[in-house]
C-alpha cells in the first residue's frame, strides 16, 4: 500500500492534456468524481467541460465540512462505488478541498485493497498542502485524522481558476499553511507570503508553486514521517487540539483548519522562545504577522485545560504529552522537543495579551 515516490503535480493549462491522455478506456473502466455540495456547484461543470474522455463518468456528491470527514461517510462512498459497479480498474477523482482529498484518497486506497485516485484540489489549503504528500484519512469523533493510510495519488492537478469562488476566510486558511512552509523551511518564502497576505494577484500562482515545492522536497526526503517531515507539523500539535476542541463544543464557532493552525503557530513560537531557541524579536514578528491575518480567539482557563487534555490523544503522542516541533529561527525548525505544561499555559497567556 505504501508508495514513497512523489506524485507528479501539474498546474493550470498543463492539467487537462495530462487528464486526456490518462483517463482513457485503455487505462480505466470507469471514473468516479467525488465532490461536496459546494464543489458540485462551483467546480464540477468547469472540470467536466475540460474532461474529454471515453470512460463512463459518475459523480458522488457528499455533504461539505470537517464534521463529515468520518468513517460513516466512507461507508456511504464505498457502498455507492459498489452499487455503481466500481471495479479494480476504476479511477477516483477527488474534486474538492482537503476534506474531499483526505477522505476520497482513503476511500480509494482501501476499496478493493486500493484503486487509483487523482487529486484536484479546489481550496488554497488543499493546493499547497492537503492534496500533496500522500496522507489520507478521516477523523474519529472529534479526534483528527485518527484513521488513515499513506498512499499517493496518480497525480495532483492544480488549477487556480477554482480559487475564484473560494470565500476569503478559506483563502486565509490556506495562507496559514503557506506561512508555515516559510516558518519551518525558508525565511525568504515567509516574507514573500507575508507580502501576499494583503493582495490577491498573479503572484499567488507563483507562491502556490513554491509551497508545493517546499512540501514535496520535505516529503521526498522522509515520506513516512520518521524525521524531517515532522517539521510540517509545526503549529499542528496545539492547532489540532484547538481544532478538535472547537469541533466538539457545538456552542463555540467552528474554527477553520488554517485558523486553528495559525493560533498553534503563535503558541508554539512562544514556547520556542521560552525554551531559548527563538529570539524574542522573531517571536514578536511572527505573532504580529499572524494576528494581522487571523482574528484573535478568546480562551478561558477551562478551554485551555480541555485543550491540554486533548493533546494527550494526539496521534503523535507516545507516552502522555506529544513531542513538539519548535523554531530556532524564522525558516528553521527542530523536531521531537519535549514541552512542559507550564510553558503551554504561559503561551496562552501571552497570546491573549
Ligand atoms: P474543506 O475541504 O472543508 O473546504 C473548505 C470549504 O470550501 C468547504 O465548505 C468546501 O465545500 C468549500 N469549497 C471547496 N472548494 C471551493 C471552491 N473552489 N469554491 C467555493 N467553495 C469551495 O477544507 P480545506 O480547508 O480545503 O481542508 C481542510 C482539511 O484538510 C482538514 O480536514 C485537514 O485535516 C486536511 N489537511 C490534510 C493534510 C494532508 O497532508 N493530508 C494537510 C493539511 C490539511
Ligand atoms: Zn495543516
Automatic annotation (TrEMBL):
Q: Where is the 3-dehydroquinate synthase C-terminal domain?
A: 174-317
Q: Give, as one word, the top-level EC class.
A: lyase
Which terms are listed as keywords in the entry?
Answer: Cobalt, Lyase, Metal-binding, NAD, Nucleotide-binding, Zinc
Nucleotide-binding as UniProt keyword: yes
Q: Which cofactor does it need?
A: Co(2+); NAD(+)
Q: What is its EC number?
A: 4.2.3.4
Under the heading Pfam families, the entry gives: DHQ_synthase (PF01761), DHQS_C (PF24621)
- Give the source's domain of life in one word: Bacteria
Family annotation (InterPro entries): Dehydroquinate_synthase, DHQ_synth_AroB, DHQ_synth_fam, DHQS/DOIS_N, DHQS_C
Residues forming the 3-dehydroquinate synthase N-terminal domain are 60-172
Record function comment = Catalyzes the conversion of 3-deoxy-D-arabino-heptulosonate 7-phosphate (DAHP) to dehydroquinate (DHQ).
This protein is called 3-dehydroquinate synthase
Q: Which organism is it from?
A: Flavobacterium suaedae
Gene name on record? aroB
Amino acid at each position: 500500500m505504501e508508495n514513497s515516490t512523489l506524485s507528479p503535480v501539474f498546474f493550470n493549462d498543463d492539467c487537462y492534456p495530462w487528464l486526456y491522455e490518462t483517463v482513457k478506456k485503455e487505462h480505466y473502466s470507469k471514473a468516479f468524481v467525488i465532490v461536496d455540495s459546494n464543489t458540485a456547484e462551483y467546480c464540477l461543470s468547469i472540470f467536466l467541460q475540460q474532461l474529454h474522455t471515453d470512460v463512463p463518468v459518475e459523480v458522488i456528491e457528499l455533504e461539505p465540512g470537517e464534521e463529515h470527514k468520518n468513517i460513516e461517510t466512507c461507508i456511504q462512498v464505498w457502498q455507492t462505488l459498489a452499487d455503481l459497479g466500481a471495479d479494480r480498474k476504476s479511477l477516483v477523482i477527488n474534486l474538492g478541498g482537503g476534506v474531499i482529498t483526505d477522505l476520497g484518497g482513503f476511500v480509494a486506497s482501501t476499496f478493493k485493497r486500493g484503486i487509483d485516485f487523482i487529486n484536484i484540489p479546489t481550496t488554497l489549503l488543499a493546493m499547497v498542502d492537503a492534496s500533496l504528500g500522500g496522507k489520507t484519512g478521516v477523523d474519529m469523533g472529534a479526534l483528527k485524522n485518527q484513521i488513515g493510510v499513506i498512499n499517493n495519488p496518480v497525480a495532483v492537478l492544480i488549477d487556480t481558476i477554482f480559487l475564484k469562488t473560494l470565500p476569503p476566510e478559506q483563502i486565509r486558511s490556506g495562507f496559514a499553511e503557506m506561512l508555515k512552509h516559510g516558518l519551518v523551511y525558508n525565511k525568504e518564502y515567509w516574507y514573500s507570503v507575508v507580502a501576499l497576505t494583503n493582495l490577491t494577484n498573479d503572484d499567488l500562482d507563483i507562491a502556490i508553486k513554491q509551497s508545493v515545492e517546499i512540501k514535496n522536497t520535505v516529503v521526498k526526503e522522509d515520506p513516512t514521517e520518521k524525521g524531517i517531515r515532522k517539521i510540517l507539523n509545526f503549529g499542528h500539535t496545539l492547532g489540532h487540539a484547538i481544532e478538535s476542541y472547537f469541533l466538539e463544543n457545538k456552542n463555540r464557532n467552528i474554527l477553520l483548519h488554517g485558523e486553528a493552525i495559525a493560533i498553534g503557530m503563535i503558541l508554539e513560537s512562544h514556547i520556542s522562545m521560552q525554551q531559548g531557541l527563538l529570539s524574542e524579536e522573531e517571536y514578536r514578528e511572527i505573532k504580529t504577522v499572524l494576528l494581522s491575518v487571523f482574528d484573535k480567539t478568546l480562551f478561558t482557563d477551562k478551554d485551555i485545560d480541555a485543550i491540554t487534555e486533548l493533546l494527550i490523544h494526539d496521534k503523535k503522542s507516545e507516552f502522555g504529552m506529544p513531542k513538539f516541533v519548535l523554531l530556532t529561527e524564522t525558516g528553521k525548525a527542530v523536531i521531537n522537543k519535549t514541552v512542559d505544561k507550564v510553558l503551554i499555559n504561559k503561551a496562552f497567556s501571552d497570546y491573549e495579551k
